[in-house]
């Protein structure tokens, strides 16, 4: 091959200044500032929170940094909230394959969150304690925000387009008909407290246990139909940034999402969190633990979050607002500066097989399988595929989908109402 032909095959040289400029622009887009504030008032002392702004996908490599913010609203004691705070993050990260690129890591995160929540619940229930906790768990990597939640703590997004969006789903039996149907189909009963005379009072609860939530971590004394499988939503913000408000139900019982967002706009995150708590206290009084985290995702060329763009009237932009997908990528790019939010993933099913999927990597050559939840290597004889039936047959495909060890398979069956019935005690 001649020198001329070789030179033609080489890509054209790019000036160093141009390359540096590209790197700077890329860094500006991919690595926004994350600023946060926290405020709380205690009534029972069962709220806990987690703030870790300095996590790294690859230890020792700052360019792989991500942030984690979470609220744990305990009930019937504090043990479950403390245990989840101390163990949930590690359990989630252990379920993501090592050596993943950033894109692969973000794609694997929703499934890892499901595995991490279930593993944390199994580990806590093995302690034999009876408390429980809601969890709202937020991972921020660049402009991508992933939220996993069980219970009735919430995370809202106040985007720079002026839209206030709920990134979580409440698992209160009073408010969620699908969860009521799931609980009853799995063997639980749903009803209110009966007082003398047959009158029903208070919120809907599931029995046994009397919990008004359908999903939580812990609650060993309640049926397994109270599941730890989280609703997960993943979105990508525009380069204009946005504000997250993560709070326990002490806030949301007093304020709507719009009220909470509007009460603190234009203020730095630390002051904003205090003002949201103050506004909730003014509206309802201190009737429950009240905890609020405010997290601003800020363009790197702004010292603070820019003022929110006023919401526009109904027009062509409405097709591009949060939750609405478009095939016109050119228009989406043009509107990126006004706060368009792209939805990447959302799933709330309580069926573990649906949440773990069928494409989980398996090394069938080694003869050893890794449980998709607890991450323990075991021989196939000691477990089942999450998608296999209760019995093997030559025609079945028992290893289709991720592998579950015996313990995690029992947990899956129990959550779906397929576990062995509890023994009846005859006096």
From TrEMBL:
Domain of life: Eukaryota
Keyword terms of this UniProt record: Hydrolase, Magnesium, Manganese, Metal-binding, Protein phosphatase
Enzyme Commission number: 3.1.3.16
Annotated SMART domains: PP2C_SIG (SM00331), PP2Cc (SM00332)
InterPro entries on file: PP2C, PPM-type-like_dom_sf, PPM-type_phosphatase-like_dom
The reaction(s) this protein catalyses: O-phospho-L-seryl-[protein] + H2O = L-seryl-[protein] + phosphate; O-phospho-L-threonyl-[protein] + H2O = L-threonyl-[protein] + phosphate
UniProt KW Membrane keyword: no
GO molecular function, one term: protein serine/threonine phosphatase activity
Annotated ranges, domain PPM-type phosphatase: 25-297
UniProt cross-references to SUPFAM superfamilies, sorted A to Z: PP2C-like (SSF81606)
Cofactor(s) this protein requires: Mg(2+); Mn(2+)
Annotated CDD domains: PP2Cc
Family recorded in the similarity comment: Belongs to the PP2C family.
Name of the protein this chain belongs to: protein-serine/threonine phosphatase
Highest classification ranks of the organism: Eukaryota, Viridiplantae, Streptophyta, Embryophyta, Tracheophyta
Originating gene: LOC107411796
